[in-house]
Predict the 3D structure of the following.
Amino acid sequence: MLYRTPTLASVVVYGTRWCAQSQLVRRYLERLGIPYRFVDLEEHPEAVAQLRWWTGGYASHPTVYVGGEVLVEPSLAELERSLMRRGLL
Amino acid sequence: MSQRFAELSERFMALEPQLPQGPEREALSVLFAMAQEAWRQQGQTSPSEGGLEWLRNLYKSAPKMEAAAVNPGLPVGSPAPDFSLPNAQGEHIRLSDFRGRPVVLVFYPLDWSPGCSQQLDLYQSELAEFERRGAQILGISVDSIYSHGAWAAVRRIAFPLLSDFHPKGEVARRYQVFRENDGFSERALYVVDGSGMIRYAHVSPYLHHVPPIEELFAALDALRR
C-alpha cells in the first residue's frame, strides 16, 4: 500500500473499565505499541449516541473505531485484520 | 479500497448533526452498520458449525449472567483459608504448596459462561505478566474436573482450574463468596502473599464485572515493596 493513513488518534476504543473484553483489546493494542484513545462509556454517556449512529442503534462494548472502520465486539483476529487493512500494523 | 471505504465512513459520520431524529435517520444508521459488518467480513471465513472456533465463540450467544453480588468476601489482612482441590488432571493442589510466592485466586461462577470465558481469556493473555511477578494464578469454580479439562482445552487456558465440586462450593463458602441460591460463586479475586495472608480482595459488584487488570498487577507489585 503506497498511501498510509496517519496512525495517531485513528484508533478509539469505546468500552468500560470493568469489561474484560475491553481490557483484552486495550492490552493487545498496548503490547503492539499502537496509540489509541479510550472512551469510558460510563464517564461519557454522550458517546453512546454516536455509537448508536454508527451501529444501527446497537451500543455495546467494546466497540473499536479503526480509521473509518467500526468493529462491534471484535475478536483480536478481526481487530488485527482491520489494523492491517488500515496500514497500522 | 480500504482508504476509499474509510473516507466514505468519515463523511457518513460527519453528517450526523444535520439529520433529524426519525425513521429515515434510523434507516441510514442501519444501512451504515450493514456496510460496516459486510466490510468486517472481508477476507475471513466464518467458523464452521461444530468446529473449535465456533465452540470458542459459543459463549457470545449464551444466556447472560449479570446479577448483583450477595456476599462480602473475606477482608484484606485475614489469613487465606488453606484448601486442597483437584485440577483438571485430577491432581490435588494445596494453597499452602505455594508458600513463599504470591497466589492469585480467581473465583468465577461457571465454565463456559460469557463473563468467565472473557475473564479467563484476559488472564491467559497476561500470563507472562503474572509470571514476571512470580505469581501463581489459580481458577476456582464448582465445575467438575472434566468440564475444566474440556473448557481449558477449548480456550487454551494454561493455568490450573480447580474443582470446588464436592462438597459443592465448600472452598468458596470459606472465602465467603458462595451464592447459596445460585449454587455457584461470586466473581471474586484474592491476592494471597507468600505467608498465606490476603493482601487484595475484590468481589465484583455485578457478576459480569471484571476489575481492571492493572489493579491486580498493582496489588502484586505492592507485595514486592
Q: What stands out?
A: Strands of chain A lie at 11-15, 37-40, 63-66, 69-72.
